[in-house]
Structure formats: C-alpha cells, structure tokens
Amino acid sequence: METKRQIDPRATSRALWFPAKGECVLREEQVLAPAPHEVVVRTMFSGISRGTESLVFAGKVPESEYDRMRGPHMAGSFPFPVKYGYSAVGRVEQGPASLVGKAVFCLHPHQDMFVADAASVIVIPEGVPTARAVLAANMETALNIVWDATILPGDRVAVFGAGVVGTLVAHIASRIVGTEVLLIDSNPERRRLAAGLDLDFARSEDAWGEFDVLVNASGSGEALAQAIELAGQEARIVEASWHGDKPVSLPLGGAFHARRLTIASSQVGSVPPDRRVRWSYARRLGKALDLLRDDRLDVLVSGETRFADLEADYPRIIADPNTLCHRICYEE
Known about the structure:
The protein has 332 residues and is α/β, with parallel strands linked by helices. It has two domains: 12-123 and 294-329, Medium-chain alcohol dehydrogenases, catalytic domain (Quinone Oxidoreductase, Chain A, domain 1), CATH 3.90.180; 139-265, 3-Layer(aba) Sandwich (Rossmann fold).
C-alpha cells in the first residue's frame, strides 16, 4: 500500500541557482505533486563539490560538453542560468511505502525539498551517518577511477591531488592488499589529511620513485606532466581531472614513448566496459555509500554552512583553496 501522494499545489521550495558568471541566488520554486513512481524528499544535507562546481560557477563549461555535463536533476541550461549540484541527502516524505521515512541520497542540486523518480534515490545503509553521506558522489567517482586504473595487489600507486576525490582514490587503493600508495599534493597542509587516513604523503617537489599506476586528480597539467616523469616502464596513467576549457600541455618527448606509457581518461558518467554488464549506476552508487562506513572519512568535510546562508557564503566557499567537501545543513 502506498501513502497519499497529494501535496499542497501551492507548496514551494528554495533552490540555489547560478544566474550569471560568479553569481548565485536562492530562488523559490513550486513543488509539483508527485506521480505514482516519484518521491518527495525533504533535504537534510547537501555537499558542495568544489572542483566541478567552481567550473560551473565560473562559466567554464566548454560548449562541447553542455549535454554531457547535465546533471540528473539539473535545471536551466549552460552556461547560465543553471541550477547545478549532485550531492543531496534527505528524508522521503511521500512516495512508495517502502521508502517513506527513509533517509536517502540523490544526485540533486542544492534545494530544500524536491520531487524525484523513486528509482533515482538510494537508501542510506545502516552504519553510514546521513551527514557523511554527502560524500557519496565523490566516493562513486573515486571508485570508478580505481576501476579505470585497474589497480592490482602489489602495485605502487601515485595519486596526485589531495582533494576529496584524490584522497578517496588513495584511500580505496590503499585497502587493496599489498599496494604501496603515495598521495601527492603541492599544499603541505594536506599532510595532516593524509595522516588521518593512514596514507603516505609527499609534497609535489619531494615526490620520487617509480610507479606502476599513477592517477591525476589534481586538476593540474603540471601534475600530469610529473606523473609521466614518475611512471615506470609500461605504467598506466589515469587522468581523472576535468580541466574545463583550460588547455593542457604535456611533455610527450623524452622517455614517454620508450617507456611505452599509457594515458587513459576516467569519467564517472560511464561504468568501465569490463564491469558494465554487471554494474548498473544504482549498484555502483550503492557500493559508494557502503564504503562510507569508515569514521575517518569525516576529515574530508572541511566546513558547514546553513542553507539559509548559502547565497551569501557560496562564492567564498568556492574561492577557498582549502575547501574539501563543504556540507550544507538544511535543518534549523
């Protein structure tokens, strides 16, 4: 039996919109009555993913990527105005009886109440705090990167970029038996972040060695060039950064060809071909949530802001290079 889905047609929600480059505003939106296959979700938390959201906020999404960059519940269109974001945690207020009252994760922009297809929400598993579940989208990306990198037991792995995604890639890789993982970043303050997850760390200028697998999650072309320098014979380099409209130059002379190096891209929009038959997007996101049981991962949440203050605080959060995942709290 399903609960009553009829809601007040006059009900409104508030959502964060980007009307123009470097601008954001909280706008009221009408909440439509849900269809039988939909749920009404009251948001508890959302997370700002600084890397991608900063490019959207700055209008740096290339025109060629307008369609591919559309989020599942994005509104508007690139470049502006656009409602963008993909890390919402809330409680189902109306919908199928099996979901009502459950805490769920949804790839949805920053909005205090929304209607979505029931198939697009994932119930947060026991043992994962709802406040930590805002990391699910980043964990899903990191899991996909590790799959694309084909990291195997015993591999020496270098991960460039101690942001949320890079740190999660290093975290997952370090749990593969026998791996030796080094997290590399130009910011020495990230050493404490790495230590909190029992990861070895090196500043970019101090990194050395020869690696089997190298992942660039830094958003830096210089880091990708350094990955080429540190790659061993026939090593695999995975470019996991999204550079937006910024061109990147690479040193493809020197030993690049002699070492027979491979540079591959990784993008969460596609499950790797060797897993695509068995792994749906829902299964992958469910596993990402399951991987968030580790209490140490709370170190990746670098700050909190009330949703009511988001319009004023968002530019500062995006501009701060020390921002990891910034959590938005909707409950007063």
